[in-house]
């Protein structure tokens, strides 16, 4: 798949760029200006671009193979069955995966930072106490933040970072992440559900109720074969809390 995907990207990105340049030159009559100088437009404007593309396509294909192999190796380490060896074996596999993905490798690539953050979160879950878990969780948060610097509107990264910040007790930061998700996609069922949980933990019962109700409404519009949580008891519980607060 790597050669195919690379070719599609090259065609879309580079081809569109060439088209825009030639169209602009055509409108400004720059191409016509070459004819009085006895310069053939196709040979002058197209040949070097074609040669450079032919040279770079194999290089980019090799680079895509490299990224694919590293990503596959990392995913295999993270997703492989580790129950047989217990927590120690699982920890060993995750550390090996992180060794394949050092912090400075492909620093401008969104997917690698997200994978690194996920691996560090898994490592923290295997820690025997909160002190051991603190460092990998903080490093995972930095990895997610670096990913957001590359692509601020990536919903998956925002959700992962919000869940992590909720786990770290940063409720206001987590709420901010989920609000960003809803700003990008107002019909994000998961965004409404997670924001409701954070607002409830912060004591904003009215906001939690509104977002939980929105999640329930969106959930009923999804296909029937998807699992649906029972919102009734939680909504009743929130309404009861609101009534008690009003009575106080």
Summarize this structure as a short list of keywords or feature phrases.
248 residues, mainly alpha, 77% helix, elongated
SSE blueprint and pairings:
Blueprint: H1 2-27, H2 41-79, H3 86-100, H4 110-125, H5 130-150, H6 155-167, H7 171-184, H8 189-202, H9 205-220, H10 232-247
What does this structure look like?
The protein is mostly helical. The chain folds into three domains: 1-79, no CATH class; 82-151; 174-248, Serine Threonine Protein Phosphatase 5, Tetratricopeptide repeat (Alpha Horseshoe). The chain has helices at 2-27, 41-79, 86-100, 110-125, 130-150, 155-167, 171-184, 189-202, 205-220, 232-247.
Count the helices. How many?
10
Element pattern in H and E: HHHHHHHHHH
The helix content, as a percent range, equals: over 70%
The geometry reads as elongated
Major sheet attributes: none
Radius of gyration: 26 Å
Distance between the termini: 64 Å
How many domains? 3
Number of strands: 0
Average pLDDT? 77
| Low-confidence sequence ranges | none
Strand content: under 5%
Structural class: mainly alpha
């Amino acid at each position: 798949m790597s050669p195919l995907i690379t070719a599609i990207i090259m065609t879309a990105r580079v081809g569109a760029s060439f088209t825009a340049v030639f169209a602009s030159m055509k409108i400004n009559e720059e191409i016509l200006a070459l004819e009085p100088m006895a310069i053939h437009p196709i040979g002058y404007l197209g040949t070097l671009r074609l040669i450079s593309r032919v040279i770079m396509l194999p290089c980019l294909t090799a680079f895509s193979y490299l990224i694919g192999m590293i990503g596959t190796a990392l995913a295999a380490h993270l997703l492989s069955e580790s129950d047989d060896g217990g927590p120690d074996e699982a920890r060993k596999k995750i550390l090996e995966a992180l060794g394949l993905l050092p912090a400075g490798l492909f620093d401008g690539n969104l997917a690698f930072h997200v994978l690194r953050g996920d691996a560090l979160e898994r490592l923290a879950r295997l820690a025997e106490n909160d002190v051991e878990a603190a460092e990998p969780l903080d490093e995972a948060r930095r990895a997610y933040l670096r990913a957001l610097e590359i692509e601020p509107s990536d919903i998956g990264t925002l959700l992962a970072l919000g869940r992590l910040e909720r786990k770290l007790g940063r409720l206001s930061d987590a709420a901010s992440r989920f609000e960003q998700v809803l700003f990008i996609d107002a019909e994000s069922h998961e965004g409404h559900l997670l924001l409701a949980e954070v607002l409830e933990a912060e004591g904003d019962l009215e906001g939690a109720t509104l977002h939980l109700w929105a999640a329930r409404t969106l959930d009923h519009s999804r296909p029937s074969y998807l699992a649906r949580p029972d919102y009734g008891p939680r909504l009743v519980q929130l309404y009861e809390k609101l009534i008690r607060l009003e009575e106080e």
